[in-house]
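Encode chain A's predicted structure.
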Amino acid sequence: MTNSYNKSYLKIALPAAFEGLFMILLASTDLIMVGTLGAFPIAAVSIFAQPRLVLLCFSRSLASSVTLLVSRKADEAGKEAASSIMKKSLTVCALLLGMLHILFFLFLEDILYLMGATPDYISLAMDYSVPALIATYFTSLTLILQAVQLGYGKTAVIMKTNVAGNIINVILNFILIFGIGPVPAMGVAGAAIGTVFATLFTLIATAAILRGDGFFAESSYVPDKDYFRQILPIFGSILSEQGSERAGMVIFSRMAAGLGPIPFAIHSVCMNICDIYWDFITGFGKASMVTAGQSCGRGSEEDWKAYKKSGMRLSFYMSCAVFVLTLIFRNEIFTIYSGDGIAPEAASIIMIFVAFVSFPEAYGVIGSSILRGSGRTAEVAAYSFFSVPLLRPIMTGLFLYGFGLGLTGVWMALVLDQMIRATCAIYFMRKLKARGWDRILADMA
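Encoded structure for chain A:
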């Protein structure tokens, strides 16, 4: 019986995990290409990461809300309701993110300086960030559409679409960064322009697939009272979690950027390497959220417990493999990214942290996803607010300025933060289990 649950879980998890893996690897290819231009271009591209993620936290929160609602209606009879949720969410996302993007465009240079950019590379950062804003808007709309596919467990379709878009991105970026034939070399601006066309392709392709599946049936795009009654409680909790996490990450990144262009470039590369496993295990997190939501929708306690066990066990095996491989080959992995002025030896200690953090980040992702799928979004928001925007900056400041540990102190704070979040996730899962199945279903009603 356990094997059947593992197979069902992996059927959802693996496509989502490999999608995340392929996407971050292709994004890493972009960073590697930019890295050949030197440390300043790496810093110029990396400094936009936090503003981009601030914008995406709104669309990701709305997309997660859509997935949770759709997963509870994930059958043919629920397609009309899912279509209505998707179309109204698309309207909300288009208007909200449109306004936010305009504000970011008007104050972009000030925002980049706030993130820690220096005059050494601010012009390069602006060259990259302006077109990257447009790409972020397309990504936000795509997230809403793919949230419906995720709610139905169609992670393989999402993977194929996103991988195709990112392959286009890598090809265009190579042409536009370095220049081929009549196309001039555009450097970091070329990287952003290539991403614009790639994200537009992904948006159009996702919409076409959903239209073919009948999700653009005749229903209103205008949000109504019933829509907001369903979406707002979930969206509010998830946005609180995502927003507080993003605020903490902005402060955290700002402190790292204050160490100077070369330490920040090392930090950015190590974060990118760390994100490879994060994006992979997030696929397992999506599977945990969907299976928990579907189990609650069916009222099956047996399914809920079995899928929870599958997610936690499989993620532990994955973390063990990643820890060993990263620890052994840490210098070789970093060398792939090394540009002018960046020696892998300088990052060797940081890469040990990258290897170790795979354990708590996996438990944190799986645990929080199960809690969300079980209707406990407020609890995830509560401990996320306590951890990332409060404890992480405090610990970073203590290690960085109090003990003078530099970049090592920054990563010590990151690891401790992930350990605290994982501990909170495990505690609330046990507390949820102790409430009893009938209470879980009653709370979700």
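The two ends are 29 Å apart (CA to CA).
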